[in-house]
Amino acid sequence: MLSTLQWYIFREMGKTFLLTSIALTTVLGFGGGVMNLVEVDRVSPGQLLGLALIVLPVAGTLTLPVAALYSATVTYGRMSADNEFLACRASGINLGRLFAAPMVISVLSGAGTFYFVNYMIPGLIHDLNTFARAGVQQYVEQQIRSPERLTMPGGRFRLYADAPSHLADDRQTLVLGGVAVLEVGEREWRSVGAAERIELRFEDANTERPVLAGEVFGLTYFNREKGQWIREVGRQSIGRNEIPLTIRPRVKWLTLTKLMEYGANPAEWPRVREIIDNGRTEWACQRFHEAVYDEFVGNHSVVLPAADAVVTIQAAEVRRDMERDGRVLFFDVTATEARGGASRRIHGREAQFHAARRDDGAIVQGELVITGDVEVTYPDSSIQPARGGRERLSGFALPVSIPAADGSTDSGFLEEEVPAEKLPTVAAIQHKARQERDLFVRQVTAEFHSRLAFSASALALVLLGAALGVLLRGANVLVAFGISFVPAMMVTVMNIMGRQLAEKADTGTVGLLVLWGAIGAVVVADGWLIARVIRR
């Protein structure tokens, strides 16, 4: 008999839960609640449909706890109004067992919410990024046809053009004809002109956002500051611009799997990784400078090998500029470059040796810039000497011994004590990397507890709704549902507040206590209300 009664309650709750979930998901998905979270403008109907298919499953994540709470309140309120609980008690049935159905529904709702929060919503962000990358060409074409036209990232240039087209052999290049270009400043326009055509390329670069580059052909424009027309010969390059369509990675958008992976190795988090890479580069450059300086002090000259040449540097005086990353300064310097059996000699008043990461970000290379009455002679040739104000020699490879240093590894860079008085820039970057790593670890901890607490709160809130439905029965069922929203909002607010406190270094433990304490208060209220229902 008890199993039949349990199935009856579970069936009634299940129907209400299912219908409420479908209704709320549809309203939330198509009514704009979740759609407003997506910052994509001017989408086509096809894109809107594809976007809806991505968003609707995620809308269900937000509706499951509400649907479970509503179904428990309405079902138990109706049963109480029909005196079914009195009949069960008169039959000798323990009323506490009748709360098994809301417990099952709440566990299923909590488990579903936990899965959706940890995988469905992060999957939405990934799908949106893929969606934005796949439709970047269509986005640019729609921008060109729109009244506002295409504004390049940064907001300085606005392009007006005829209907765009594609190259016959290259679908990744968009051709704009009949182009008008407007350059604007902070308060007024700076220049206006026209071009024969513009070719825009959509590069599939390994960046967080789609990249747009290209060339301008036959550009003629009026410069307002100079008050004259200028015609550019040939083609002008459009630098690589990231189109802000995609969503940057954040801790809240990580799946549970990624959250645990990054939590175990926080140095792999992109923000921390970027700072560490910059620090390792700076450390390598500093050691490169130090190696060049020490060799010169010991030998009164320094030999720098390049890809296809060897440069020997001699100078009357040498010192390091510790205020500018420790670069080496030479005075009354002579650099002899030997290349393929031939040589040339470059003399100048001063020179500086500076190491930096190459433009493509691949490796660190050294560069020697000679300035001040520069004279270039060719001892092994009849070429006449040349004079100038500046000569640049580059491509000097990082010594093999430097990457093997402790600072070349993540653990070495984060844990090695860098002398701040000797390497202030490296020490500052290391301190920033440690702060970012510790912040990320706290964010991961807070995010995990927040997701778990939000999902676990479904059990306490659904039981609370069922108990209130029994006490405030009949026409007051909706009042019971509204009352149950007060602790639900309290749990939500405390969840957000606790997560924010847990992310701070000095309030981490307090934040977790706040986060879980709200659920504990609801559990205590559940016990008191259910005991009162059973006594009645």
Task: Give a short summary of the structure.
The protein is an alpha+beta fold and 536 residues long. It has helices at residues 2-30, 45-81, 84-90, 100-134, 136-145, 256-264, 270-299, 410-415, 424-471, 477-502, 508-535, and strands at residues 150-151, 157-160, 165-167, 170-184, 189-203, 211-217, 220-223, 228-231, 235-242, 302-305, 310-321, 327-339, 342-357, 364-377, 386-397.
Chart the SSEs and their pairings:
Elements: H1 2-30, H2 45-81, H3 84-90, H4 100-134, H5 136-145, E1 150-151, E2 157-160, E3 165-167, E4 170-184, E5 189-203, E6 211-217, E7 220-223, E8 228-231, E9 235-242, H6 256-264, H7 270-299, E10 302-305, E11 310-321, E12 327-339, E13 342-357, E14 364-377, E15 386-397, H8 410-415, H9 424-471, H10 477-502, H11 508-535
Antiparallel strand pairs: 1-2, 2-4, 3-4, 4-5, 5-6, 5-7, 6-9, 7-8, 10-11, 11-12, 12-13, 13-14, 14-15
Helix pairs in contact: 1-2, 1-4, 2-4, 2-9, 2-10, 4-9, 6-9, 7-9, 9-10, 9-11, 10-11
Explain what this protein looks like in three dimensions:
49% of the residues lie in helices and 25% in strands. It is α+β, with helices and mostly antiparallel strands and 536 residues long. It has three domains: 2-134 and 441-535, no CATH class; 154-242, no CATH class; 300-408, no CATH class. Strand 10 and strand 11 form a beta hairpin. The protein is elongated. Residues 36-42 and 404-408 have low confidence and may be disordered.
